[in-house]
Amino acid sequence: MSRPVKVTALFAGLTIALVVVACVSAGTGQFAIPVADVVTSLLHHIGLGPGLADPFAEGTLWQVRFPRVVLGLLVGGVLGVAGALMQGLFGNPLAEPAVVGVSAGAAVGASLSIVAGWTFFGAFTTPALGFVGGLVTTLTVYFLSRSGGRSEVVTLILTGVAVNAVASAVIAFLLFSGDQAAREQIVFWQLGSLASARWPYVGSILPLVVAGVVISLLMARKLDLLTLGERPARHLGVHVERLRATGIVVVALMVSAAVCYSGVIGFVGLIVPHAVRMLTGPGHRVLVPASLLAGAVLLAAADLAARTTFDYADLPIGILTAIVGGPVFFWLLLRTRRRAGGWA
Q: What residues form the membrane-spanning segments (predicted)?
C-alpha cells in the first residue's frame, strides 16, 4: 500500500472511529439512549429533522453527555498534538508535555485553590488556577534552561525533572496541610476525570485549543526540518530557538487549558504520536492532524470505559490510561526497535 493511500485510510478510519465512539459514549450510561436517537438529536440541533419525543432523553444528552464527550475529544486531541510537538521539538520519542512541568504546575495551582478554599472566580477558580499554574511552571522551566540566549534540549529536560520534583513536593505539602475533604479532592483531581464537564468549560478552552492546533499545523514544515538536526535546520533558514520557544508556549497554553478541567491524564501525549508515527512516518504535516484525531478517539474511548467498568462508579480516567498505556508503550518501543532500529 502506497503512503498516500495509507494516510488517506488512516484519516478516514480515525474520523469514522471518532464519530462512532462519540455517539456510543453519548448514548451509554445509567439511562441508556439508543445510538439512533443520539444521531436523531444531533441532526435536529443542526436543523435536519425533528427532535426526540422524550424531553428527558434530550436533556440528558445535551446537559450531561455531550459536554463530557466534547470535552474528552478536546482534551485527548490537545494531548496528542502536544505530544507530537514535544517529540518534534526535542527530537526524542519519549518526550511529552509533562516533561516541561505543565501537568505538575497545573496540579499545584489546582491543589492550592482547593486547600485555600478560594472561590473568587466561582466554579472556575480551581480550573483557572490550574491553567495559570501549568503556564507559569512551563515558562519557568524554559527560562531556567536558557543560557547565552539558547536552550539546550538536555538542559531543558533536566530542568523539567527538577521543577517537577519541586512541584511534587509542593503538592505533598498541600496534601499534608489540607483537611480530609481537600485531600480527597486533590487526589481525585490528580487521577484525572471528565465528570465535571459543562458547556461553559468547553467554551472556555475551545479558543485556546483551536489556536494551538492551527499554530501547530503552521509549524509542521519547520519541525520536519528540525528532525535533520539543529545545525542543518539553521542552514535551511529555521530559527531553532524561536521555533522551540513558540512550540513550548503553544504546548503550555493548550495543555494547561485542557488539564485544568480534566486533571492529570498521562500517557496519551506519549503513546499517540509514537503510534501514529509508526503508521505514517515522521512528517509533521500528517503527524499533527493525525495525532489530534487519534488522541481524541483514544481519550473518548477511555472515558467510555471508565464510566462503564463499574456500576454506579466513575473510574478516574488517569488510572485507566496509565494501566493500558504503560504496556502498550513498552510494546511499541520493542516493535520499533525490531523493525526500524529506533526513532528514525
A: 66-86, 98-121, 127-144, 156-178, 198-220, 248-274, 313-334
Q: Round the CA-based radius of gyration of the chain to a whole number and report it.
A: 20
Kindly report, residue by residue over 188-236, the tens digit of the pLDDT. 888 888 988 899 999 999 998 999 999 999 999 999 998 888 888 888 8
Q: Give per-residue burial for 203-234: e unless 16+ CB within 10 Å, then b.
A: ebbeebbeebbebbeebbebbbbbbeebeebe
Is residue 344 assigned to a domain? no
Is 128 contained in some domain? yes
Give CA–CA dist 104/164, Å, rounded. 6
Residue 150 — φ and ψ, nearest 5°?
-135, 155
Is residue 195 domain-resident? yes
Contacts of 270 (CB under 8 A, 6+ apart): 83, 94, 96, 325, 329
Q: Domain of 303: which CATH number?
A: 1.10.3470.10
Sequence-distant (≥ 6) Cβ neighbours of residue 6 within 8 angstroms: 279, 280
> Bridge-partner residues for 132, per DSSP?
none
What domain range includes position 281? 3-339
- Confidence category of residue 147, pLDDT binned at 50, 70, 90: confident
Q: What burial letters (b/e) apply to 239-253, b meaning 16+ CB within 10 Å? A: ebeebbbbbbbbbbb
* Inter-CA distances, 219 with 122, 132, 232, Å: 37, 25, 17
Cell of 124: 472556575
Q: Which amino acid is at 216?
A: S
204/201 Cα distance (integer angstroms): 5
Output the nine-digit C-alpha cell for 14. Answer: 480515525
This prediction's pTM? 0.91
Summarised one tens digit per residue, pLDDT across range 302-341 is 999 998 888 777 888 988 888 888 887 777 677 766 665 5
Q: How many domains does the chain have?
A: 1
172: burial class by Cβ within 10 Å (0-12, 13-18, 19+)? exposed
The strand pairing partners of 146, in sequence order, are 151
β-partners of residue 147 are 150
CA distance 141 to 156: 7
Pairwise CA distance, residues 341 & 344, whole Å: 7
